[in-house]
């Protein structure tokens, strides 16, 4: 078992693209760590640089405290699972799983025993003699995982491990992968562009944009307190409301921190806590639809008023779009409380859930 340390890492392709652009991060021993970001942000390049399949242009990669920046891939102690699984079609499941051991000249008896044991761990019992083409997508994915685990690497690197599976299998495989990682306790870094997958699986998430780290935190932190409007936009199955606003009161002082103030936005005003901005400052106000509630009865404090435009069914919840002075604001409500289109509604949010971002830089005013 081992941690991974990345220091000042840059990976520049021969065409000049800085796919990884000055990154520092630490993955703890045994951690399940997600690299998340939109297509082209550099997450696969970062994973491949950790594996040694791309060479670092600047900076260092350490695995288990050993500098492996210039070490060849086979000697880094990493096992990687590729998006397309890269199974050998002419080999049986058993031969696929134990191929890395064969390369290392491990005895046939030990290989057979490893294949049996790993197949058991990965729910592949009874399939050891089949060829990859005779397996379902989910089973092929588990063979690729089994091969990585059987190679006894110190760290497991997974490139979009679930993306080739259909929606239902993907959910099953997610649960399977999470349990497997926890049972084995192996340090695992996985790449995904699917924020729901990262939130569901990872202990911590690195959100990347254009080769740079935009936020590093637990799923709860990146969901509840995105560090900037980029992360706010990217995380969450319903987009965060990001509204132009003006700080209207800061409880008397010119600037203040850790107190509740009021910010005016389309349709009224909201209370916000923990920000530093003077009265009159033009900001972007971020509030998730999940944290807004439809107020019943009279509201005395800050609130937004508007008319219901449309409601979308999300299963047990509905996402209601409310027109507040021409700006659409989303709020999720339990399905049974879904208001009729045209109804005038009042929205409130706890001050702790209303975030203020710098209008120019998009950074959280924390
Ligand atoms: P995706 O989710 O689409 O796989 P990603 O976040 O994994 O994207 P990368 O594949 O790491 O992103 O690519 C990062 C940047 O580097 C992109 O601009 C891409 O076009 C560029 N890039 C990737 N591979 C190469 C290469 N071999 N040569 C030159 N540029 C490359």
UniProtKB/TrEMBL annotation:
InterPro entries with a match to the protein in the record: AAA+_ATPase (IPR003593), ABC_transporter-like_ATP-bd (IPR003439), ABC_transporter-like_CS (IPR017871), ABC_transpr_MalK/UgpC-like (IPR047641), Mo/tungstate-bd_C_term_dom (IPR008995), NA-bd_OB-fold (IPR012340), P-loop_NTPase (IPR027417), Transp-assoc_OB_typ2 (IPR013611)
Domain ABC transporter intervals: 4-235
Keywords of the record: ATP-binding, Cell membrane, Membrane, Nucleotide-binding, Translocase, Transport
Superkingdom to which the source organism belongs: Bacteria
GO molecular function: ABC-type transporter activity; ATP binding; ATP hydrolysis activity
Signal peptide range in chain numbering: none
An example Gene Ontology CC term for this record: ATP-binding cassette (ABC) transporter complex, substrate-binding subunit-containing
PANTHER family: MALTODEXTRIN IMPORT ATP-BINDING PROTEIN MSMX, TREHALOSE IMPORT ATP-BINDING PROTEIN SUGC
Record's protein name: ABC transporter ATP-binding protein
Organism: Kribbella pittospori
